[in-house]
Amino acid sequence: MELMLENINKSYGLIKALNGFTAVLDDGVYGLLGPNGAGKSTLIKIITDSLKSDSGSVYINGKSIKTIGDSYRSMLGYMPQHHGVYPSFTAAQFLSYIGSLKAMDKKRIEDEVPKILKSVNLLDVAHRRIGTFSGGMKQRIMLAQALMGDPKILILDEPTAGLDPKERIRMRNLISGYALNRIVIIATHVVSDIEYIAKKVMLIKKGVLINYDYPYELCKKLEDKVYEIEASEVELLDIILSFNVCNIQKSADNLIVRILLHEHQTEYDLSKYSHRQTRATIEDVYLSVFEEERETEVMQ
Known about the structure:
There is one protein chain. By secondary structure, the chain is of the alpha/beta class. It has two domains: 3-214, 3-Layer(aba) Sandwich (Rossmann fold); 224-279. The chain has twelve helices and 14 strands. The protein has helices at 40-47, 65-68, 70-73, 91-101, 106-119, 135-147, 165-178, 191-195, 215-220, 233-242, 282-289, 291-299; strands spanning 3-12, 15-25, 28-33, 55-60, 63-64, 76-79, 153-157, 183-187, 200-205, 208-213, 226-231, 244-250, 255-260, 274-277. Helix 4 packs across helix 5.
């Protein structure tokens, strides 16, 4: 399965939401990262064919989605950020309803519902009303509805929003398992969710795809840029003003401050502090790329 996004452009009045977005995806998990207003939601709507681009094309296995219509939509599974569940429905009823909306025949629905509920660890509550579910269970039923019809392209918008760490890991493992023979696109602000399972990461800024690469390749670009400083509380303000601070952790005696050097800085700028170089993460990559937006949010 190959999904090609070719030179996608979309504007809302004078605002350019997507600007020449081009990428090719095959089976695996893809992280879609960017600040609010970067164009993630617009891109998702265009991929799901719920919004028309101004120009550019989406191809599936070399064919334009404009020419294959309903057969393309049957390949899609979408998990929205906000729950669209019916609290009075049981889990089984809800999935059956989604199956009917996807024009699945009754026999196929009856076969798929228990299998999918089992795969998301909800089979034992198949006949409980969704309104009684915990937040984690509701997230899993939303993933389940996206899986109805065996879609080959799965788009998940903030799939771990509001989940505790245990549920987040459970959801992450489920997604990773489903990606063995599917294209899975995850739009999220929880960078750690995709760091461990993403085949590639797309970084989108002001409608432009500015980085699209394997996680380890993105992290390599920050070699010699990520450090941990052991500092006192007296030194903290100077560090915050001098570097891009990623994290501050209290140790037994001091503070451990994780920082990113600015583009013009080198390790020499750290010489007055006790420090050590450390491995870059995708979160560091995110903070490095979107430093400008982060500073704007802090100022506001």
